[in-house]
TrEMBL record:
Reactions catalysed: sarcosine + O2 + H2O = formaldehyde + glycine + H2O2; sarcosine + (6S)-5,6,7,8-tetrahydrofolate + O2 = (6R)-5,10-methylene-5,6,7,8-tetrahydrofolate + glycine + H2O2
Enzyme class: oxidoreductase
Family: Belongs to the SoxB family.
EC number: 1.5.3.24
NCBIfam families: soxB
Required cofactor(s): FAD; FMN
Phylogenetic classification of the source organism: Bacteria, Pseudomonadati, Pseudomonadota, Alphaproteobacteria, Hyphomicrobiales
Keyword Cytoplasm found: yes
Keyword terms, alphabetized: Cytoplasm, FAD, Flavoprotein, FMN, Nucleotide-binding, Oxidoreductase
PANTHER family: FAD-DEPENDENT OXIDOREDUCTASE DOMAIN-CONTAINING PROTEIN 1, SARCOSINE DEHYDROGENASE-RELATED
Protein name: Sarcosine oxidase subunit beta
GO CC annotations on file: cytoplasm
Organism from which the protein derives: Microvirga vignae
Primary localization class, coarse: cytoplasm
UniProt-listed GO biological process terms: tetrahydrofolate metabolic process
Length: 417
């Protein structure tokens, strides 16, 4: 693999950029692997990368039914933050945020992580109390988060309307300055390129259609649209399709799948300096480097595998955005789309072993898993390689829905992007 550097860039500039070559191979599946990852999103590719890099497992494959990054990784609004309430959540999201900070250097690939600050607006007394509680809890965990008055919030984000006559007036905000955005598909590509260079087979257009188990109950391999592949370890990282795949091994998951939408405006010059989220009105917004306003909505209220959400959800979101930022009222929306998110009852992920020997699962990131990509892959790789959960992943077992040790970010945040 050719490294990106100033020297190679200059060289290629004189060569019309003809010499870069493919960034990863397109191998045929082998008969068997030491481990197989199902799902070529950011989480699956990160898992493969850390399996190869930190645990020396090179004879592994990532199987993707479409193209890598074509699932939620390529559909999300790229908000990154770690200011979650509970200790377990703060630990895993902060682990991810620390990895984000050095990821471009680690992968030698520009993932365009931009720590432009994520500001979460409070619109009522409950929001104020809840966000202040987050600020205090985060500080105890060494996670940066600070409280801003409405005037300070406007100073940080000048387009914000802080008039007191709004239906949802801004009563303050919690700001995580290290929060921000990254380029979603670059994350998938960067991990794919790094994993491929260490010998990992990334196999696209290869759908897993079954999981074969032996007489002992342990996994023996996966049935795919490109034939049977033998393996003693399977890591399922398939976001909205986790339940479907796990059912093939006879495991019923505590998950519901919902469509979640996002939309972008026509591109304009830089007008929006940070990320703003409003949980109460269910809208969040940032500006991409291309100039589009990137806007996200809440989930539809009904379960579905459709990758389009209800139009009323997007309309409601745009109403809220126009009230908070009246100058955007005249802008046109360019396109919208949806992704299928898998949601657990406490809105925290499941990472770990399953009742089936050799079968591991990483899912339930719901509306907020992009920010976790590096940390999730890192701890899941450890879990697969060692057969035991990484200490940071240990609380996120499936078993918590039996024991009652929930990590209730649903009640804590109302929304988790
Ligand atoms: C509109 C929207 C906005 C969001 N905004 C944010 C945000 O701002 N911040 C944030 O942190 N998170 C956000 N999220 C959530 C985030 O996108 C996801 O949690 C995260 O991307 C999940 O990554 P993944 O790699 O697990 O899933 P995916 O990227 O979905 O990867 C799973 C892959 O599995 C593949 N697959 C499925 N079934 C099979 C099969 N049978 N065989 C082989 N492959 C299969 C799929 O094709 C897919 O590529 C948002 C999600 C959506 C939809």
């Amino acid at each position: 693999m050719r490294r990106f550097s100033l020297l190679t860039l200059l060289k290629e500039a004189t060569n019309a950029h003809q010499g870069w070559g493919r960034q990863w191979r397109a191998p045929e599946p082998k008969v068997g692997y030491d481990a197989v990852i199902v799902g070529g999103g950011g989480h699956g590719l990160a898992t493969a990368y850390y399996l190869a890099k930190e645990h020396g497992m090179r004879n592994i494959a990532v199987l993707e039914k479409g193209w890598i990054g074509g699932g939620n990784t390529g559909r999300n609004t790229t908000i990154i933050r770690s200011n979650y309430l509970y200790d377990e959540s703060a630990a895993i999201y902060e682990h991810a945020l620390k990895l984000w900070e050095g990821l471009s250097q680690e992968l030698n690939y520009n993932v365009m992580y931009s720590a432009r600050g994520v500001m979460m607006l409070a619109h009522n007394v409950h929001d104020v109390q809840s966000f202040k509680r987050h600020v205090y809890a985060n500080r105890l965990n060494g996670v940066d988060n600070e409280w801003l008055t409405p005037e300070e919030a406007k100073e940080f984000c000048p387009p914000l309307n802080i008039s007191k006559r709004l239906r949802y007036p801004v009563m303050g905000a919690a700001l995580q300055r290290r929060g921000g955005t990254a380029r979603h598909d670059a994350v998938a590509w960067g991990y794919a390129r790094g994993a491929d260079a260490m010998g990992v087979d990334i196999i696209q257009n290869c759908e897993v259609t079954g999981i074969r188990r032996g007489l002992s109950g342990a996994v023996e391999g996966v049935e795919t649209t490109r034939g049977f592949i033998r393996t003693p370890r399977i890591g399922v990282v398939a976001a909205g399709h986790t339940s479907v795949i796990m059912e093939k091994a006879g495991v019923r998951m505590p998950l519901e799948s919902f469509p979640l939408q996002a939309l972008v405006s026509e591109p304009v010059k830089p007008v929006f300096p940070c990320v703003v989220m409003s949980n109460a009105v269910h809208a969040y917004i940032s500006q991409s480097d291309k100039g589009e306003l990137v806007i996200g909505a809440g989930t539809d209220q009904y379960v579905s595998y459709s990758q389009q959400g209800g139009i009323h959800i997007a309309t409601h979101t745009l109403d809220a955005i126009c009230e908070l930022f009246p100058q955007f009222t005249r802008m046109r929306m360019l396109r919208n789309w949806g992704g299928i998110v898998d949601v657990t009852p406490d809105r925290s992920p499941i990472i770990g072993k399953t009742p089936v020997q050799g079968l591991f699962v990483n899912c339930g990131w719901g509306t907020g898993g992009f920010k976790a990509t590096p940390g999730s892959g890192h701890v899941f790789a450890h879990t697969i390689a060692k057969g035991e959960p990484h200490p940071i992943a240990a609380p996120f077992t499936m078993d918590r829905f039996r024991t009652g040790r929930l990590i209730d970010e649903a009640a804590a945040a109302a929304v988790a992007h």
